[in-house]
Write the structure tokens for this entry.
Amino acid sequence: MAQIQPSSPTPDEPQGAQRKPGRRAVRYGVPVAVVGLTAATVGLVPALADTGGPDLPDVTAEELVAKVAGAETDQLSGTVKIKTDLGLPELPGSFGSDGGGGPFGGGPGGESEAPSGEKGEGSSPAAPEGRLMQLASGEHTLRVAMDGPERQRVSLVEKAAEYNLIRNGADVWAYDSGSNSAWHTKAEPGPHGKADKGPKEGKYADLTPREAARQVLKAADGTTSVSVDGTAKVAGRDAYQLVVAPKKAEHTTVKDARISVDAETGTPLKFTLGAREGGKPVVDVAYSDVDFGKPSAGSFDFKPPKGTDVTEAKPEDHRGKQKAKPDALPDAKAFDVLGEGWGSVAELKAPGAPGAGGEDKGAGSEAEGMLDGFTEKVSGEFGDGRVVSTRVVNALLTDDGTVYVGAVTKDGLVEAANAAAKK
Amino acid sequence: MSPVETAPQAPRLRGAPGFLGSEIRLTFRRWRTVAMLAVLAAVPVLVGVAVRIRTSDGDAAGGPAFLSQITNNGLFLVFASLAAVLPFFLPMTVGVVAGDSVAGEAGSGTLRYLLVAPAGRTRLLAVKFAATVVFCFAATAVVLLAALVTGVLLFPVGDVTLLSGTSVPFAEGLSRALAVAAAVALSLVGFAALGLFVSTLTGSGIAAMATTVGLLMTVQILGTVPQLSAVHPYLFPHHWLSFADLLRDPVYWDGLLRNFGLQGLYAVVFGSAAWARFTTRDVTA
């Protein structure tokens, strides 16, 4: 059969060129060039953006800390990206997120709201506690808007769904589009006095870099070094980089916390927590865009839509709890803190703790094997125990049921346990 | 370039709508196309009837997105149906049309006649691609219309609750539904270009269709493997569900723009690859 060659006399296929073997290669060069160009753009643009921070007047660490503390950004709207890579052991079910969310109370702020036994409202899919726990792992996008301390909105952008937490004056509403359910409580102002103001103010809208930064700066004392490390561009704005690093804490797993502070307003725009073992930041909370203008008033209006299940929660059930320090467990009823600063370890007497030796020995070799998969056996003067490791927080569960938790290495835990056993 | 060569260009350009029109007519006159559109239209009806029957059982949590909202507002049947057909079914029909576009003509021996006609290969390819994109929009519109009619007949309609919990009038809900359908149709453009490229590689329509649909399956499976998360953002279905972002208040454009950018990239890369292949290949059938 005669071939119809690409030699049809058309303007875009000039005669005689079609047989040249180079021609096909040249044409295939177009898609290849597009791919190459895209790859270069994807690869180079962030790299170029990283180099050379903006020129800003020098500032000392103290001035910058004061600027953060004094920042009065009341009106703000923007998008926050939260990335957490705690390096939790792969576990089925909720143990992983519980174990990670709890001890890591000082991170993006959300985890410090860990549920502590509120069974009643926990049943509503729109109740905030469980939803905020999700932020302890993976990547999330939040949209935040605030207009003074009384009006705040946080929207957790999910795949084909959204979770909203809205505070407007005395009302706190939560709406979960996935289950089409709402949750409501009254945020009574007044009776609890000034002491309650702190947690109340930022209770439901503190998932921003600002709150995380304040937590860290609050914890800064003699064991911490604070320095300024150049400038950067975050969300298109000029920012100073504040580095908070542990000092003289040989066992800590934390390398440093970096806070990018907006040069103009003093608002922290980005917060990252680096692990000593290197790699990606353990926690990375950053605005991807931010606007310091007044959000539209409608953002804070919420009426439960028709056909929505509304759960009413008793007011004040969800507040007034102490903010957890970075190295403390929020829901531990009785625990001692051993050591101080970054190297501190929390000691919990928890007879029923998972992994307590007595139960395991009876549970057969299969459970034993599974346990070996994500824990490591250690022994010392305190006896025998197992260590559960994440990238930052490690926990030692001894066979007599004591749990040692801290942002320290395995050796640090064993040392702390030994010291405690000697007492 | 000599005037002899440039002269025929003007009438051909004028004739372009006719060429495209005949190509579109050809696509939609096929029984296969009609059957695929009919099955697509059946999906919302089935979903709607099933939800209607099972409503008494309480909440329909779980399942595809938006399912739990349908009983409150029939308009959500549109979003639920689109979310249900988007991962496989809708692109599969596009894969059939795109895969068949050039290879089918080659297989049935009609491609040579098309090429003998003074149309030019580049233009032929462009018209084939345009017809496939028209099919993307038509298939999405069929799902939209079937879901809308079923939803209005079986369920109450009224103010629409957006994902953010804001209620908007039905008219705005409807316009958002149209925007969602447009976003879904545009989501398929990248895959359509991929199918067109595959179609230029072979002379067998069946082989091209099977390869294109097979690629879809493969990419969708790769998208579920967590170890490959580094490449996920570059897979064409990665941002497909971003159409739901149109239902937020305010609209969250990040994912949508990324989706359109990715689809555009696929369209350019595989469109130009198809062009490179088709304009330099010897057509034997």
About this structure: The CA atoms of residues 101 and 122 of chain B lie 14 Å apart.
